[in-house]
Amino acid sequence: MNILLLGYGKMGKTIEQIALDRGHQIAARIDVNNRADLETLPADAVDAVIEFSSPESAVENIKICLTRGWPVVCGTTGWLSHRAEVEQLCRDTNGAFFYASNYSIGVNLFFRLNKTLAKFMRDYPSYRASMTEIHHTEKKDAPSGTAITLAEGLLEHLPHKSRWTLKETDHPNLGENQADAVEIESLREGAVPGTHTVRFDSDVDLIEITHVAHSRQGFALGAVVAAEWLAGREGVFGMDDLLGVMSDER
Ligand SMILES: NC(=O)C1=CN([C@@H]2O[C@H](COP(=O)(O)OP(=O)(O)OC[C@H]3O[C@@H](n4cnc5c(N)ncnc54)[C@H](OP(=O)(O)O)[C@@H]3O)[C@@H](O)[C@H]2O)C=CC1
Ligand SMILES: O=C(O)C1=N[C@H](C(=O)O)C[C@H](O)C1
């Protein structure tokens, strides 16, 4: 496939190597400096776009690509308040759009584990649900998209939880009733690729599950596989479509 890399930073460069190793070609490497090329590249030069840019630029990037008829695999997080309009544009243009907050197989297994644990805990509200995500110091958004997906999985199965909140380190919500919220703590440390911990803490014991990314390789491989999977498809997709029904759901 001829792959356009939209966003040529840490993820773009990691994806490039995996794509080349899998026999694909790079149609273009688009960054802030040469973004105008998105409009001038011949439409038939691109078979798929893999977009890992920034929260403030993803929506416009995706819209340009869908309008040009290019299938888009988007990994950028922090823009989901605009998700409905992006998905509608995909349908209006008979396009193909694939989004995942996390493309690694391990995290998507962790998403399933998280929901299973939440089902176990639904009748035990004395176990207070919370989360910690740790990422590198260059990360622009908080909480991580992965943490939000995990929180949504908890909210789906915990009747006593109705929202998630970002833990305020500077101005803790002292005294505010947070009982209905899943609190997410976002820590930024060194070059951490991505660590997510979901915990259920009671007065007498603690249950927690953790996923640790050792590098960006898992994210990048998943994004390239998604681009290969998306070829020839039309519509809006995510990792559940790619992975299908897993053994625990058969
Ligand atoms: N879904 C997943 O599995 C994963 C998602 N991510 C997400 O991907 C995004 C990128 O992460 P990462 O690669 O680490 O970030 P980087 O900052 O390393 O790379 C982003 C790149 O995009 C460029 N960029 C910014 N705006 C535009 C634009 N309008 N058009 C083209 N390029 C642009 C930046 O340029 P400049 O530096 O000049 O601003 C930068 O080179 C983040 O939102 C992150 O959360 C990351 C890993 C996995
Ligand atoms: O910014 C990152 O690096 C990552 N961002 C994604 C997120 O926001 O969940 C995925 C992964 O954790 C790495």
From TrEMBL:
Dihydrodipicolinate reductase N-terminal domain ranges (all copies): 1-103
Chain residues that bind (S)-2,3,4,5-tetrahydrodipicolinate: H136, G145, T146
Subcellular location: Cytoplasm
Residue sites binding NAD(+) per the record: G75, T76, T77, A100, S101, N102, Y103
One of the record's GO cellular component terms: cytosol
Any GO BP: lysine biosynthetic process via diaminopimelate
SUPFAM superfamilies from the UniProt entry: Glyceraldehyde-3-phosphate dehydrogenase-like, C-terminal domain, NAD(P)-binding Rossmann-fold domains
Listed EC numbers: 1.17.1.8
Major place of residence: cytoplasm
Active-site residue numbers: H135 (proton donor/acceptor), K139 (proton donor)
Keyword vocabulary terms for this entry: Amino-acid biosynthesis, Cytoplasm, Diaminopimelate biosynthesis, Lysine biosynthesis, NAD, NADP, Oxidoreductase
GO molecular function: 4-hydroxy-tetrahydrodipicolinate reductase; NAD binding; NADP binding; oxidoreductase activity, acting on CH or CH2 groups, NAD or NADP as acceptor
All copies of domain Dihydrodipicolinate reductase C-terminal, residue ranges: 106-243
Catalytic activity: (S)-2,3,4,5-tetrahydrodipicolinate + NAD(+) + H2O = (2S,4S)-4-hydroxy-2,3,4,5-tetrahydrodipicolinate + NADH + H(+); (S)-2,3,4,5-tetrahydrodipicolinate + NADP(+) + H2O = (2S,4S)-4-hydroxy-2,3,4,5-tetrahydrodipicolinate + NADPH + H(+)
Binding residue positions for NADP(+): R35
Pathway given in the UniProt record: Amino-acid biosynthesis; L-lysine biosynthesis via DAP pathway; (S)-tetrahydrodipicolinate from L-aspartate: step 4/4
NCBIfam families per UniProt: dapB
Role played: Catalyzes the conversion of 4-hydroxy-tetrahydrodipicolinate (HTPA) to tetrahydrodipicolinate.
Family membership noted in the UniProt record: Belongs to the DapB family.
Quaternary data: Homotetramer.
Stated name of the protein: 4-hydroxy-tetrahydrodipicolinate reductase
